# Entry
Amino acid sequence: MGRPLFLEILQKPATSCIIGICSAIWFYIQKKNIGYAHVGLSYETAIEGHHWRIITSAFSHISVIHLVFNMSALWSLGVVEQLGHLGLGIEFYLHYTLVLVLLSGVLVLGSYHVLIQKFKLEYFRRVTAVGYSCVVFGWMTILAVKQPSSKLDLFGFLSLPISFAPFESLIFTSIIVPQASFLGHLSGIIVGYSIAWGLIHGMNNYWAVSMLGWVVFVFVFSLKRSGAFDFTFIEIESVTDPSLPSVGFIASGSSRTLQMGALPLGGAELV
# Structure
């Protein structure tokens, strides 16, 4: 018989919070009838300045099955928080979750850029990626390197050896879920190996807080500049070079307008 759920939550506080955030966002999206086109990440929207989508796409899901599958895998991978003796633990989990969210999103966009500009595959210009599984695949990979004897449990009845889980899951999801983002999942694996092998290292509280501050700044600035959200206390004015903006602060008003027009898309990819 397993341990009570509240004890599991206490042992995986960061994982539990992320699952709660993703679930709350999913309920909000459903309630407001917001489509994946409004929050997902695509090459076309990125070059239009919608950089905020790197964050919103990671924490959004387009169906309850999509949400449950990702959160079930994430819950199993929450064991990372309990492995402080292996150099992991809660701080490591929080620091490198931020790295995984950002770098996997950037790597996906970089892959789209190469496929579009080098190979002329225009399909990838409008493909929209949505979901948290870039990060899930990243943690799966890190755990496969750091503790290869672990197992990945899905839905309480499917168990995979963690050492093979990243590539097994990559192939499995690509076969059974046509919309699964192969590039998104592969990006998570690449960033995961980079972290596990020490190619990306040195994150501490100072760097994590600094990075988070820049993320918030770019998130708010790109929301304002792209016209997706009207922050009335920020004004963007042209300087000598019209392509370079300057930011000024003006008196705050009482109205905020959400402007999310539908975009022509090539389709959604689940990540």
Summary: The beta strands are 127-130, 151-154, 158-161, 234-238, 245-249, 267-270.
